[in-house]
What we know:
With 316 residues, chain A is of the alpha/beta class.
Amino acid sequence: MSTVPVIQATELSRWYGIVMGLNNISFDIGPGLTGLVGPNGAGKSTLIKIITGQLRPSDGALTVFGVQPWNNPDVLREIGFCPEDDALPDRLKARTWLRGMAMLSGIAPSAAPDHVDAILDRVKLDRVHWEKPLGQFSKGMRQRVKLAQALLHHPRLLVLDEPMNGLDPMGRQEVQRILKQLAAEGTTVLISSHILHELEALCPEILILNWGRVIASGSQLALQRRLQGTEANLHIRCSDPARFTRILFEADLLLGFDSTGNDGDDGNEGGLDLRVKDPQRFSDSLVDLLTDNNIALHELRSRDRSLHDIFEKMTE
Amino acid sequence: MALIDSSYTHRDGETRGIGYRRWVIAQATLTACLKVKGMRWVVWTCWIYALLQGVFLFGFGQLMVENSAVSDFITEDLDLFKSFAPMFREWAADNPRIAIGMTYNMFFYLFTGAIVSSLTLSLVALGMAIPRLITSDLSSRAITIYSSKAVSRFDYCLGKFAGVLLLLTLTWLGPTLATWMMGNLMAPEVSFFWHTAPALLHSVAFVGLGMVILGLMALGISAMTSSPRMATAHWVGLLLMGVVLSGIGMGSKNYWLQYLSFWFDLELLQRSIFDIGGDFKELGDKYPGFTEMGLIKTIKTRLALTAENVSAALACLSFLCAGALVILYKKVKPE
């Protein structure tokens, strides 16, 4: 059984004239769901175009299933792409266009209709719309048709550029469910999105781009641990917050704090948002500090868990 | 490092090859073109025109038959035919290559490329189809999706090109072949088939070449812009520019202006392929003095052609085709 990374970039660069789209990046993407995150102009679209064989790298290499996708129909056959653009022909009916797309993907004309119907059911496009021109579709419906065309040929790699755009909350949940299901079936899914909390819930793996460079990649957990190496944001609720803050400052563990108000009956208990200097030392000495000073701890939780925080810190 | 089992396959069903995918694009292109308002009328007109030409050839064939009802009907009121009919019959017996073959060659020269011909109708059809070729994919940005499928840019263009050729087959090649077939099936003798074979070969050669040239130009213009109106305007502009320039160039010192009209260039190419000059020479050799008669002489002089004329026309057409290919290369991409 041979094994290769699904997507592998090695010193990959792409420039447009003097503008750098991607700057000497290297990364691996494995099976499952991976989120691609980055501010505007970070190089996400350029990377997606290279992965889907629409752009040639200027330098370095990017392989999908071990081969370069540029001008390579063999590998493109294994990729499904859902672009961000509203790339649908308005005059054609959803079913007609998707049949054409199925045939363009190499599915026999006799098998195409059943295939299309099954996919339209899967993306939950109401049957009453199947025979309507795409021009009459709402943004959410068009988004489903775009997703359907990407799934038609059962790709091993699915690349989605802002797939949640225009979808209502229920639609987003449905798409998330489909994507999770696909990942469970063995499809590799790469999602670029600005809706970070959705990526957070969906993608265990994250690739963060900024200014054409990969600034972080790996599991959300690993990235979180990496960030905690320098500082951590915590919420704490204890019996004497004012004294506890003083103790932490004296122990040189605190960078800053914010009181979130008293919530105890005696007015001496309350919540604190802490910015801790050295998370490892803090966790090692916390129990001693509390017991030595007779402070009762009611709650302790990290405020650094969101992908948004990771993204903000990484792109700072 | 993340790894995957590359032997994993998702779909067990048959996946067809690239030839099939190109055919899908061609078919879709033709279907889209035929859905353009008025396109079916143009196609029908081409076939009705072919039918009329077939009737005309039937009449010509009947002239060869003495005392036939049709021959009598034609020659009854028309003095020209009254005097020509016996001569044709004599020639047909004496030299069928000239009487039948050469006449058919001249007819098909006119049928395939004259001002009122299936070429003109094909140019109209192309003008209507151009917004649906590549322009619509650029304007809807659907090209982004197509280019992510397992078809290369080359395959996409080839499919589109095949779609245009199919359309031109409906408006130009098909009616031409049908005309030839009708003319021969309704001819008084089976020998018409081989006497008129050169006319068919010339027609197929010219129409085939014309289809390739016009198809490339149409695709190039269609890829120039993402605005359907602008695409049509470019095509009409190119046609009008050619007509105006060839009008200015005709009979003037700046005769070279005529070569800037692709229509004029195609006509020169057609004259060369049909070898009209060769026909007149053969006719003059067989029947001295005949080609020096008033109308015949005028036609002969008007259709005279030199190797330089053909080279210039070919050069201009090649330039236009190369331009179309450059536009396709530059514009047909998702970026």
